[in-house]
Amino acid sequence: MQLFAGATADFLRYDEKREIDKQLSVSYLDYYGYAVSASEANSWRHSLHAVASQIRDMNLLKHGIILEMQLPLTSRRLDCMLTGIASDGTPSATIIELKQWSMAAPAEEDECVEVDMGRSRRTQLHPSVQAASYATYLQDNRSVFYEEPCVALSSCSWLHNFQQDPSSTLLDKGKFGDALAVAPLFCANNTDELAVFIDERVGHGPGLEVLERVISSRFAPSKKLMEYTAATISGTAAYTLLDEQRVAYEKILSAVQRALRRGERSVVLIEGGPGTGKSVVALNVMATLLGRHVRVSHATGSKAFTENLRSVLGRRAGSSFRYFNSFTQAADGDLDVILCDEAHRIRMSSNSRFTPAGRRSDRQQVDEIIDAAKVAVFFIDDRQGVRPDEVGSSRLIREAAAAHDARFAQERLEAQFRCAGSDAYIDWVNALLGLGASSEGAFELVDGGFDIRVYNSPEEIERELLGRIAQGASARMTAGFCWPWSDPRNGKLVEDVVVGAYRRPWNAKPDGVCLPAGVPKSSFWATDPKGFAQVGCIYTAQGFEFDYVGVIWGPDLVYRAADGGWQGVKAASQDRNVKRASTDEFIHLLKNTYRVLLTRGMKGCYLAISDIETRNYISGLLCNARA
């Protein structure tokens, strides 16, 4: 999809009439179903007039131009692409990333700069890093750029309001040298150099035929990308598959082979509790399928989980890792396989509060996923749904498979690889919260087994965890969502989590900007060592594991023997979405929340429980509980 594609001569005529932004706005409304924002339309008006002036000066009248081209299976759009013939006679296209910035400051994050955006300063990807990544993505996923005879693709960035300043962080070769070498940055006062760059790449012949090839090409991950990602995953695999993990792996591969050979649609369901290796199986399957040149994507509903995978594997390999809502515009069978990790986080639909009425869809998210692939694989734990809008369940998957007339297969993972391999501890947690078979006995602490303790205060837990970290272990503090979550104030995170004398901030918000130095972004709280200084909530802890986890059990879920057991206290919850649930669902979601937090530890879990009766009840279920 693109908002404009045509001859440069037509583009110049629209510019002369000052109507190019109107043309894009009409296309935007037709495609998205709602009007473009005034700020984006204004940006088009100014930036594209600069592009038109450059094209006019270079007399590029028989070339192709694409504006606002959406990258396949993403919501990202590149600003401008010119098509023509390169100086060596090769059909060619070049991406121009446009920015209206007039300055930028250094940023703590790699490949980023700080930019004033009106009322706030935001961390932004360096324009040349952005342009180069768009080119790589298209070269990996759009057939015209890798199938012979392919169209050569290059990229650059152009800051048409920025006066070249060698001392600017934007031109820092020490930090951005690699990106600048691949995608040069041009400024307002070196347009002659920009003209040379464009001329060498597309200025030696007409580009309308090249334009047609580009816009008619198909989305298809290249074999080169598949092989690269497969090698990257295999090179970082941490575990060997054992027992039923291997059975699940083979069952998925068999289903894929059968579906691709027979052209049938297939759904595979892999069930398993925390620590049974669902994610490990998913990554091993992905590496194998990519190595066989099968078109496969990994998807989750967790930004933190997905962003960490992308960070570990690198941007190029990370392009194969998406979200459940990435397939709204996918054509039927666009992919061979979609691996849905943490499928309990699937939502009723891909609509969000930001989706305007004109773009809302009646399709269920699970249907979008099954339609987009020949084989959809769902890895799920029915007891990990923690929000009312998370509807993923084994039952939902089975019903959707039947509705699509898909061949269905399933496998269950039982062996425990977290919590010191203690099935007994997982059973105890389920029994404690009334989520499994009742337990007649207490959980007995055994030397060398899983270390579960109840402490008098979070300070004691934190001291214990710091000692573990000093010995080389990983650890985090977590809590139920019982305290407000404030925006930063005066350059610092607010110490919202207050238990007696204990005061700590939550991890940064997902949309946190201008974070204080040393505070990791929300997505990286679980993996950045600096995350220990903040308390993690359910949404940043879910999907991750640590050697030791501290859990502050808040007053939102309390045990009352006189009232029949577990009670939910909505007044004590700060999670607005969860509080909207019915009383029964509210209690169920809180039980799932604490189950997730209690099972993040590989070796131990340390509890601080604010409610006295709840504390006494849980302590009484622990033999030799230490405090």
How would you summarize the topology of this molecule?
Blueprint: E1 2-7, H1 8-16, H2 20-32, H3 38-58, E2 64-70, E3 77-85, E4 91-99, E5 105-106, E6 112-117, E7 120-125, H4 127-141, E8 152-159, H5 173-182, E9 185-187, H6 191-202, H7 208-216, H8 223-236, H9 243-262, E10 266-272, H10 278-291, E11 296-300, H11 303-313, H12 315-318, E12 321-323, E13 335-340, H13 365-372, E14 373-380, H14 394-403, E15 407-413, H15 423-432, E16 443-444, E17 451-455, H16 458-470, E18 475-479, E19 497-499, E20 502-504, E21 535-536, H17 538-541, E22 546-553, E23 557-560, E24 565-568, H18 576-579, H19 583-598, E25 601-609, H20 612-620, E26 622-623
Parallel strand pairs: 4-8, 8-9, 10-14, 10-15, 11-12, 11-13, 13-14, 16-26, 17-25, 18-21, 18-22, 22-25
Antiparallel strand pairs: 1-2, 2-3, 3-4, 5-6, 6-7, 19-20, 23-24
Helix pairs in contact: 1-3, 2-3, 8-10, 9-10
Question: Notable features of this structure?
Answer:
627 residues; alpha/beta; Rossmann fold; 3 domains; six-stranded mixed beta sheet; six-stranded parallel beta sheet; 20 helices; 26 strands; 36% helix
